[in-house]
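Co-fold these.
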Amino acid sequence: MKALVFDVFGTVVDWRSGVARELAGYLSAIGRTDLDPFALADAWRRRYQPAMEECRSGRRPWTRLDVLHRENLETMLADHGITGADPQDLDALNLAWHRLDPWPDVLLGLHRLRRRFFLAPLSNGNIALLANMAKRARIPWDAVLGAEPVQAYKPQPEAYLRTAGLLAMRPDEVCLVAAHNGDLRAARKAGLKTAFVARPTEHGEDQAIDLAPEEDWDVVAKDFVELAAKLEA
Amino acid sequence: MKALVFDVFGTVVDWRSGVARELAGYLSAIGRTDLDPFALADAWRRRYQPAMEECRSGRRPWTRLDVLHRENLETMLADHGITGADPQDLDALNLAWHRLDPWPDVLLGLHRLRRRFFLAPLSNGNIALLANMAKRARIPWDAVLGAEPVQAYKPQPEAYLRTAGLLAMRPDEVCLVAAHNGDLRAARKAGLKTAFVARPTEHGEDQAIDLAPEEDWDVVAKDFVELAAKLEA
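Predicted complex below.
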């Protein structure tokens, strides 16, 4: 194993709290504090997979996530009775996804892992999103990869295989680190190694999915610091 | 100006000394210390533009620089009477381009510039090359861009324009920093801002080109530390 590539939303950063925090500010500004920002964050996120599926299926050319997020935001707000918003406000709010905070173990874990492995995100986020997030949160990636340079959305096999290609490595020299069993299944099918780190509050206190590994993943760790210890980094 | 993107070979790193150093080790190992490693480095580099031109012209599909370097190495060695080399030795020697050292002002200058600007390479090098170089030399890029994610070789306009697109910026929000007037001319034509930093020994003591700015570039600085001062970073 020479490189670790990371799922980002949920695995590296707590997207739900971060997006809800920025939605709360927006709702307050427009006088709609009757709405629950966490419910809106969940509703925004529910449109994520269907929007990417349009691209995966070929019904729509590959389109970067910032654009999909922006469209989904407008639809989600309309579903909650918010229309006619200032487009510049929505542009700014859309960048909530660039300003997410890592889980508490992430920076220490990555700094240890980086001594031994090449580290990069393998996220469906676009390059500007991932790079702005990393700059703000000081996430020490060695390169910013993901869906955009490979023009494919996980779990398409091309997303994993072309990423290994960009690194000039064989798939089995690359390990995907993710909090999602489905992502790991697709990575394993493509020939990558797999590491599972549970994030039991990604979806809030009542989370029912991805609480435990569902296959014998190559590594299972409770957080990134334990992952570094298990990988002797 | 929100982002600075950098030419790498010559502007950020001293490719000639670095490649000659690794060639010297190889020539010593095969008992050919009669050959001048600097002359071989120059000969290797002379094949760089013609190889990319095959891709720019469309005669060959876009091919990453590691592959072009590897082909050029074999041809260059044959020109000097070295044939039948161990292919694994040549694979290793080809990675000399991943192991180049920055000029002495680079790291301090970039650490200052990074506080104010988004920093990325805009090099004809491929992602693995640039990322391995940055990891080894601790170059603090915010993202690793370049020819590979945009599938175009400078000075094609697409190389500059698509890079601004990946950053989600207008061309005039991006400034190319380069030691080469030709690169800056193409960047300006594409609408980017331009900064010239002379590297008067890139080609050795007798360098005759790119010793001074040939147009009124937006910024001219003697090195990256002065560049940071001029940009108030």
